[in-house]
Specification:
globular; alpha+beta; binds nickel (II) ion
Length: 187
C-alpha cells in the first residue's frame, strides 16, 4: 500500500544492503491471481521478507505483497511507520482476517498502481491471524491505517486490487487512464 505522508526519513542502522526489486505494475496477470501458501519457513523466505521490506521502504510504501515483486506466494510485509520503528515491521505469511469491526472510508493507493488513489471503505479494526517469517502463528489487532494495510495486503494475496472496491465509474476512469499511459509507453 502506498504511504500518505511525504516523509523520506528512514530507519538508521547498519543493516546489510538488500536487493531492491522492481515493483510489478497493474496489468501484469500475477497481480490478479491467488497466491500459493507458504510451506517452507527457511532462510530463503527470511531473505525474501527482508528484500520485500527494503523494496517497500525504497518505494515509500507501508505495505507490500509478494506478487508485487513477481512472487505468487502468500506473504506480505507491513510497516505503517515507514521504517522509523523496527518493532513496527510485520511479516504476514498465510494470513487471514479473523475479525473486522466498524467502517472507515479513506483514500487508498497501491505501489502497483502509482499515481492513482481512491476512497475505499475498510473495517476500522481488524484482527489478523498469520505466521511470521519463522512460521510461528500470531494474532494481531490493527486500527485505522494498520487495519487498512492488513486488508489491502491480504487482498493482494487473493489477487484483489483496491480498484475492485471503487465505484465502477472511478474504476473505469483509472483503467482508461492507465490504458492511455500504456499506449504512450509510460506504464
Ligand atoms: Ni497494493
Amino acid at each position: 500500500m502506498a504511504d500518505n505522508s511525504t516523509t523520506t526519513e528512514r530507519a538508521a542502522g547498519a543493516e546489510k544492503p538488500r536487493t531492491i526489486h522492481p515493483i510489478v505494475k497493474y496489468g501484469d496477470p500475477i497481480l490478479e491471481k491467488p497466491t500459493a501458501p507458504v510451506t517452507r519457513f527457511d532462510a530463503k523466505l527470511a531473505e525474501l521478507c527482508e528484500e520485500m521490506f527494503a523494496t517497500m521502504y525504497a518505494a515509500q510504501g507501508v505495505g507490500l505483497a509478494a506478487p508485487q515483486i513477481g512472487r505468487s506466494l502468500q506473504v506480505a510485509v507491513v510497516d505503517v511507520t515507514g521504517g522509523k520503528n523496527p518493532e513496527a515491521r510485520i511479516v504476514l505469511a498465510n494470513p487471514e482476517i479473523i475479525h473486522g469491526e466498524g467502517e472507515k472510508r479513506e483514500e487508498e493507493g497501491c505501489l502497483s498502481i502509482p499515481g492513482f488513489r481512491g476512497y475505499v471503505v475498510r473495517p476500522q479494526f481488524v484482527t489478523v491471524r498469520a505466521q511470521n517469517a519463522q512460521g510461528e502463528w500470531f494474532e494481531m489487532r490493527g486500527e485505522d491505517l494498520l487495519a487498512r494495510a492488513f486488508c489491502h495486503e491480504i487482498d493482494h494475496l487473493h489477487g484483489i486490487l483496491f480498484l475492485k472496491h471503487l465505484s465502477m465509474l472511478k474504476r473505469d476512469l483509472i483503467k482508461r487512464k492507465i490504458k492511455k499511459l500504456r499506449k504512450q509507453g509510460e506504464w
